[in-house]
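User: I'll paste a sequence; please echo it back and then give the predicted structure.

Assistant: Echoing your sequence first, then the prediction.
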Amino acid sequence: MQLIELLWPAFVLIILLVFIHVIFGLEIIKRGVIFTDLAIGQMAAVGMAISIGFMEGEYQLLLTLTFALLGALLITYATRKIEHIEAFIGMLYALGASSIMLLLASSPQGAELFQKLSATDILFTSASEIYPAGLLYTCVALVMFVVYPKTTGLLRELTFFSMLALTVTSSVQLAGVLVVFVLLVAPSFIALSQKRFTPLYLAWVSGLFLSVVALVVSYYFDLPTGYSIIFFQSISVIIFSFFVHKRV
């Protein structure tokens, strides 16, 4: 009973994170812009770094959202105007990562803060953090399932990337950039690499299963939960890839 009381907020958070990120991950892989989420997440983390490093944590949500939206707008423009889009997105990620290091260079806790921005230990997530995230992800999911399919052209791009930015703004604060990246890519990669099951449902199931395994393992072996999720999700993709024949 004590274990359930301790872990249920983290378990619910994992459900929410997998649920919302799979929706975007499937589309990102189909578009062939794998590092979009990583770049937007890194830009969002720049806002967090400014808040933590210079404002004692104040205006964190506003700054994180502002930089995430900035990244989303830049990528929206780039997808329509720039030929080598993956190279551009890669440089945007590099800009975000280097900016964080420069911003936190003078901080005594700089290395620790950078590690937290990469992967947060969600094992001890509080219940108060769950409810706002659940409400946000529900609204985003409604937009993606109801509004997004009816849009076209530039409006479609803006809808997709702005909703991704809103999602990343919340999830980067809760889980970290790298956790967000693997939850967007790993379950969707596995789901799209097979033809037997509906990709959306398989991605939800596989992503949730592996994340829960990581949560339990991290608890019993006293390991960082965020990096445990990254490990189990990424190694599952690597192993699964050996059993999938390349499509000709």
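Residues 2-31 form the longest helix (30 residues). The domain at 2-119+129-241 is CATH 1.10.3470.10 (ABC transporter involved in vitamin B12 uptake, BtuC).
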